[in-house]
Design goal:
The complex is a heterodimer of chains A (about 1050) and B (about 210).
Chain A (H helix, E strand, L loop, with lengths): L4 E3 L2 E4 L3 H12 L4 E4 L14 E2 L4 E2 H14 L3 E4 L2 E9 L2 E8 L14 H5 L3 E3 L8 E3 L1 E2 L11 E2 L4 H5 L4 H5 L12 E7 L1 E4 L4 E2 L16 E3 H8 L20 E8 L16 H15 L4 E6 L9 H10 L3 E13 L6 E7 L23 E7 L1 E6 L1 E2 L4 H8 L24 E3 L9 H18 L26 E6 L11 H9 L4 E7 L5 H13 L4 E6 L2 H14 L7 E5 L1 H5 L6 H20 L7 E4 L3 E5 L3 H12 L3 E5 L21 H14 L3 E4 L2 E9 L2 E8 L2 E7 L1 E4 L3 E3 L14 E3 H9 L9 E8 L13 H15 L4 E6 L8 H10 L3 E4 L7 E6 L5 E9 L4 E7 L1 E6 L1 E3 L3 H8 L26 E3 L9 H19 L3 E4 L4 E3 L9 H5 L5 E6 L2 E6 L9 H5 L5 E3 L4 H12 L3
Chain B lengths: L2 H9 L5 E5 L11 H19 L6 E5 L5 H18 L10 H13 L1 H12 L6 H9 L1 H26 L4 H8 L3 H14 L2 E4 L4 E4 L8
Parallel strand pairs in B: 1-2
Antiparallel strand pairs in B: 3-4
Helix pairs in contact in B: 1-4, 2-6, 4-7, 5-7, 7-9, 8-9
The chains are: A alpha/beta (about 1050), B mainly alpha (about 210).
């Protein structure tokens, strides 16, 4: 073991999306981060997914730029194939021992050329492709891997029996080293973020539905790979037994989840309903003729825009959602098709634990059994704790919860039981990607609070050589054509493209490279820029979306302005899509390069400008979200102005006595409020309204009116935590007309106040009142939990009480499933209803002469009407955006979704950012959510905001609009086109002219297209540059 | 999408132009510029028809970044349809020189088109159906004829006069228009100071372009 320990600030364990986000936030906020990953690359499970719900973004495409960002960040050190051996010390001063497994490839020598992979004689099942196809014993984990270096699998012939070492000879750089031994290393850090993710339920262990025996039964993760263009069959869905296109595909829900049998999880895995819908949509995209049958229980589309996504999948032709209980499958020997036997409501079924009405004289009818045959069966497998969870717990000195995930504080889902060790992502329980990202940012905030005095001490800044003045130079373009391993080179004749480029106007240098983006090659480009005095650079390779920042950086290293760069995409736009037409693809690559060179010649040097950052936050909304975010920021050392419209802090939580888990919300709230008031960095404005907002990221100025006083606040960031409201369902089910009809919150208040139940015999709850309708096409997420909570509370108070819950889908996602089961065990009766046959209510007298509310509903299981005489009717009503949301949207220029909730910048990867820079979002203003989710999200928003406030300056892009005043006729066309308010008229010596505020300009160029005199130009995308590109496209080569 | 780019591509000999955009409502910018592109395309299609070109040569398609397969389908379809239409101009039976002149005339008109679009032709709401109905309506058609068609003829007259001074009769012959229509355009152009009549030559001369200041 080495004696010396390296110093850092934070150790992030796990290089999936959550760990990556935590590392990036912390590094940007000025901390030195070790990012430890046991696999050969960072990326985690998200890298294996084809697309992400509910937007169907390509998963790898949105994740991989973050890999590169981590790789290039001066404050992040990525340690792959590495695991934590032991953790000594305490919060603020941990000493961690790391163990790095041998990769057998020297990372510092390898160029990622993959010649070794071609020479390796041993095919092995590819772990990245779920072993559905083969790779070589030496291979790069996936093509966007970071580091982009192969590793040698344990199944290698040399490692097994020392019989082959072809790769050693094949490697020109002598990077392969079979002598590598495990290495130990010690690092000192102040805090730890645990983000080890989850494991996928393995149906092979129990042979569920024939998995492991029948080749045409696959898991949903297998199916992700089958769907994916980088998958085993390059995006063709071929079934394993005969590599034929399956036409009839079945999906089975809840495999390994919502089961109390051994080896499975009792909780709901939360993500499967939506990912199955995604897979159905994608399968139909691949082949419109696909017949899809989805065997499901409750459909839990509880997240933002999930309900619409569900409806979209359901409405596709040839798609059947069958509410059923799947019994068994068997394989047909000839076709190897698989049959599914299932029972539906039609004859009475008991699928979910509480799906049936216990007692109450329900006749037990035999289930209606059917059998159908499928070409392929996909098992919707659930999320489980990491396989090594208990070892993680032992090594890090933390406790696990009863399900085997990380035990967290009931009031802080990001804190483990050990101070200084925080947790993010799916190790806290089944979470989806945005929640994993949010908790990562939240963990960043908590680390930031713990280590606020160390911020910036170990951080490193990049330095660049001075920029060369090129104004008087002729255009001297360098063209670098990338093979991208075999990705481009296998199809496009790269040398011929290089030769062609040499003949183009302005080109003084052209060369090829195997991976132009590799660290070595990039350094070489910088040298070439200096040596050949290049002043324009074209890289013909992949996409600017992922690689432009890298190459711009390379230009800066070469001492020229970073905007002298253009990228010709000859991979996605060429080699990948024309892989079978090599000659045509080569001709097209030349066309693309010619256009790029033409544009590059017209590029101008641009300045990015520094904007100072006012180190203060404005938090709008004094509920749990706003207060938590305010404290999160203040604890990290930033001043906060908290704005609350009411006279009192607390928001909607003031109406919630307890959570489903039993947390005393009021006690928690009292403590939170007192912490806020006591914090010296937090200022609270009560009874406040925002009058105006001006400025931009880093430099906002907001005018407030609070209790008759006017107040002006300068702030660098704003957090919107304006909350939501419970819908008042006046006129629905006699609400507002009959005092026995209550909302869940009203009932909860009565229960807390010691409601008199002596006269009450029957309580009926109706779910989905005012939501999942055409008008409000979303699920309010919290009501099923509320109903369970109140039903259990009523039963605890008076066990003889009859409690009925009339529901559509019981959305007890995550651990709430356990409460659902508990409620069923305590004889709470759950009756499903169809929206077309919604319950009806009338105030009447029962047979015994009691005044009752008679609830009539069609019971789909009995297939007949059911009448319930209730003493109380409780409505689970929609949660709606707060009335003030539209005004806030206008003031801060924020987007709202069709339901009126605020719209984040990116559903998956920027869940608490707004598209408007410097403004962040948390709590129910984003979407209805439970208290713990709100707390986690508020901490996430505080983390994101802090990583901005930690900067002394923010950079604004140079690609913004500008007005040539001479040509401006002050017609105002640009001003009406700009929704960002970036253009105003100013009085000049030559009269009224339009002027762009470059800080507000987003560079979308709409004003350009509207200007009748071409007076307004979008820099970097000028008419001259684009026209030269159009002309070059149409030139005969 | 600047109208000038579309016309430039045709002027440079593109047989078809396709504009790809994000689906309505999915624009990355709050400006929702894809509707503006849609509006430009509707306008430009009418303009193409006026030039004697098949409006099918211009197409706008919504293709999300995740819809690679759809992109390929659209492109293959575009190529097949364009092949059927034949080369630009030749497919429509237009003389190459005439087409070039008309495209020049149309490009000269872009600044004016932008003004007219904003003042008179912009649909009331950003909604695909509203756009479709708006540009298909008789009212918009009449407005287009009134505001654009006449100006296009004027622009073409100026193109011809730039080559050499011409008499009304010569212009009528070149343009294939009646004497009364051409006279009307010449009279209004003279009022605007774009052309002048040389009494001695008995021919019209171009003075300046429509978008150049007096």
């Amino acid at each position: 073991m080495t004696a010396r320990a390296d110093h850092g600030d934070v150790l992030v364990v796990g290089g999936g999306i959550s760990g990556i986000q935590a590392a990036l936030d912390l590094a940007t906020a000025g901390f030195r981060v070790y990012l430890v990953e046991k696999a050969p690359t960072i990326g985690g499970k998200m890298a294996q997914l084809d697309k992400t719900f509910p937007t169907n973004d390509c998963s790898m495409c949105i994740e991989s730029p973050k890999f590169i960002e981590c790789d290039r960040h001066p404050n992040i050190e990525i340690l792959t194939m590495t695991e934590v051996e032991r953790v000594d010390g305490e919060a603020g001063a941990f000493e961690v021992t790391l163990r790095k497994r041998p990769r057998y490839v020297k990372e510092e020598l390898c160029t990622g050329c993959t010649v070794c992979v071609e020479y390796c004689p041993l095919p092995i099942p590819d772990p990245f492709n779920q072993e559905l196809s083969n790779n070589k014993a030496i291979h790069i984990f996936f093509s966007q891997a970071v580091p982009l270096v192969p590793y040698i699998d344990e199944r290698c012939l040399f490692l097994e029996e020392e019989t082959c070492s072809i790769c050693v000879g094949a490697c020109k750089n002598h990077a392969i080293d079979f002598q590598q031994e495990p290495e130990l290393r010690r690092v000192k850090v102040g805090a730890i973020v645990l983000a080890p993710g989850y494991s996928v339920f393995d149906p092979a262990r129990r042979g569920d539905y024939g998995y492991g025996r029948y080749p045409n039964v696959v898991t949903s993760l297998d199916f992700e790979r089958l769907l994916c263009a980088t998958g085993p069959h390059e995006g063709e869905i071929l079934r394993p037994s005969d590599h034929k296109h399956p036409h009839r595909i079945a999906w089975i829900h809840c495999v390994g989840s919502r089961q109390i049998t051994a080896g499975a999880a009792s909780y709901c895995s939360s993500v499967c309903c939506s990912y199955i819908q995604k897979q159905v949509i994608l399968a139909k995209d691949h082949d419109a003729e696909t017949e899809a049958v989805i065997f499901h229980n409750d459909i839990r589309s509880y997240g933002k825009d999930f309900e619409r996504f569900y409806r979209r999948a359901e409405a596709l032709p040839g798609v059947r959602f069958v509410r059923s209980y799947v019994a068994v499958g068997r394989e047909l020997p000839q076709s190897r098709n698989v049959t599914i036997r299932y029972a539906t409501d039609a004859g009475g079924v008991r699928g979910a634990p509480a799906d049936s009405l216990r007692g109450g004289g329900r006749p037990s009818t035999p289930p209606h059994i059917q059998e159908e045959e499928f070409d392929l069966v996909v098992l919707g497998v659930g999320l489980q704790p990491p396989k090594d969870a208990s070892r993680i717990a032992e090594r890090f000195g933390i406790e696990l919860d009863p399900h085997g995930f990380c035990k967290t504080s009931p009031t802080n889902p990001i804190e483990t039981t050990r101070p200084g060790v925080f947790v993010s992502g799916a190790f806290t329980g089944p979470l989806d990607i945005p929640e994993s990202v949010v908790t990562a940012s939240g963990a960043g905030a908590l680390c930031g609070a713990l280590l606020s005095r160390r911020r910036g001490k170990l951080a490193r800044l990049r330095t660049y050589p001075e920029e060369r003045d090129t104004t008087s130079e002729e255009v001297r373009t360098g063209v670098f054509v990338c093979h991208c391993g075999a990705n481009i080179g296998r199809v496009v004749n790269v040398p011929s493209v290089v030769e062609y480029a040499k003949g183009l106007e302005g080109v003084v240098h052209a060369e090829e490279g195997l991976f132009v983006c590799s660290t070595d090659a990039a350094a070489q480009i910088s040298n070439t820029i200096r040596e050949k005095k290049l002043n324009r650079v074209c890289v013909a390779a992949c996409t600017p979306k992922t690689h432009e920042p890298l190459f711009r950086d390379t230009l800066r290293e070469g001492g020229i302005n970073q905007y002298f760069f253009d990228m010709a995409n000859i991979r996605e736009h060429c080699s990948w899509v024309h892989s079978k037409q090599k000659e045509e693809a080569t001709a097209k690559a030349k066309d693309i390069v010619r256009m790029s060179v033409a544009r590059a010649a017209k590029l101008e040097p641009l300045e990015e400008f520094d904007l100072p950052v006012t180190k203060r936050a404005l938090v709008v909304g004094g509920g749990v979200a706003g207060m938590t975010a305010a404290l999160g920021l203040a604890n990290q050392g930033f001043e906060v102005q908290l704005v609350e419209k009411e006279a009192e802090l607390g928001g909607l939580a003031r109406r919630i006595p307890r959570t489903l888990d039993g947390l005393d919300v009021q006690a928690y709230l009292r403590e939170l409020v007192s912490k806020v008031y006591r914090h010296r960095l937090i200022h609270v404005a009560h009874g406040a309204t925002i009058r105006s907002v001006s400025g931009y990221v880093g430099n906002f100025r907001t005018a407030l009116e609070s209790e008759g006083r006017l107040l002006e606040v300068e702030h660098g960031v704003a957090l919107i935590a304006s909350g939501a409201e419970e819908l008042r369902p006046t006129g629905t089910y006699l609400y507002g007309e009959d005092p026995r009809v209550l909302t869940q919150l009203e009932l909860e208040a009565r229960i807390a106040a010691g409601d008199e139940l002596a006269e009450v015999e029957t309580v009926v709850m109706i779910q989905c009142v005012g939501c999942r309708t055409r008008e409000r096409n979303y699920c309010a997420r919290v009501c099923c939990g509320q109903a369970l909570k109140n039903a259990l509370a009523l039963k605890a108070r008076k066990p003889a009480l009859d409690v009925y819950v009339l529901f559509r889908d019981l959305r007890a996602y995550g651990y709430r499933e356990d409460h659902y089961r508990a409620a069923a065990d305590r004889d709470v009766r759950f009756v499903r209803y169809e929206p077309e046959r919604a319950p009806t209510v009338e105030a009447t007298t029962s047979e015994e002469g009691r005044a009752v509310l008679r609830v009539a509903v069609h019971d789909p299981i009995l297939g007949q009407p059911l009448e319930l005489d209730a003493d109380r009717l409780v409505l689970s009503v929609a949660v709606v955006p707060s009335a003030g949301a539209p005004a806030l949207a206008k003031l801060f220029k924020l987007a709202q979704n069709p339901d009126g909730f605020f719209q984040e910048a990116h559903v998956k990867l920027r869940p608490v950012d707004f598209a408007a820079d410097g403004v962040f979002l948390c709590g129910t203003a984003h979407y209805p959510k439970h208290l713990q989710e709100t707390i986690a999200q508020a901490q996430g928003a505080a983390g994101r905001a802090a990583s901005l406030l930690a900067q002394d300056v923010v950079k604004a892009s140079g690609s913004v609009c500008d007005v040539k005043e001479h040509d401006c006729v002050a017609c105002g066309a640009c001003i009406t086109a700009c929704s960002y308010g970036a253009i105003d008229f100013v009085e000049t010596a030559r009269g009224k002219k339009a002027r762009v505020n470059p800080i507000l300009c987003k560079g979308d160029g709409l004003c350009n297209a509207k200007c009748p005199t071409n007076a307004i130009v979008l820099r970097h995308f000028t008419d001259e540059a684009l026209e030269s590109q159009i002309d070059a496209a149409l030139e005969a080569p | 999408m600047d109208l000038a780019f579309i016309l430039r591509a045709f002027a440079k000999g593109a047989d078809a132009v396709m504009i790809g955009g994000c689906w309505p409502g999915e624009c990355h910018y709050v400006t929702e510029g894809n509707y503006d592109a849609l509006g430009s395309v509707y306008l430009c299609k009418r303009l193409l028809a006026e030039l004697g070109l098949n409006p099918e040569r211009l197409r706008i398609e919504w293709i999300a970044a995740s819809e690679g397969a759809r992109f390929a389908e659209v492109m293959n379809d575009l190529v097949a349809r364009t092949r059927a239409l034949g080369p630009l101009g030749a497919g429509e039976g237009l003389d190459a020189a005439v087409l070039a002149r008309r495209l020049r005339a149309a490009r000269e008109l872009v600044p004016y088109l932008k003004l007219v679009e904003r003042e008179r032709l912009r649909p009331p709401r950003k909604n695909e159906q509203v756009y479709r109905d708006h540009f298909a309506s008789e009212e918009t058609g009449a407005l287009f004829d009134e505001l654009v068609v006449a100006r296009l003829a004027v622009s073409e007259i100026l193109q011809l006069l730039e080559e050499s001074p011409l008499s009304t009769a010569e212009l009528c012959e070149r343009l294939g228009l009646s004497a009364s229509v051409v006279s009307k355009h010449l009279a209004s152009s003279a009022r605007q100071g774009w052309v002048r009549y040389d009494v001695g030559e008995r021919r019209f001369h171009k003075v300046r372009s429509t978008h150049e200041p007096a």
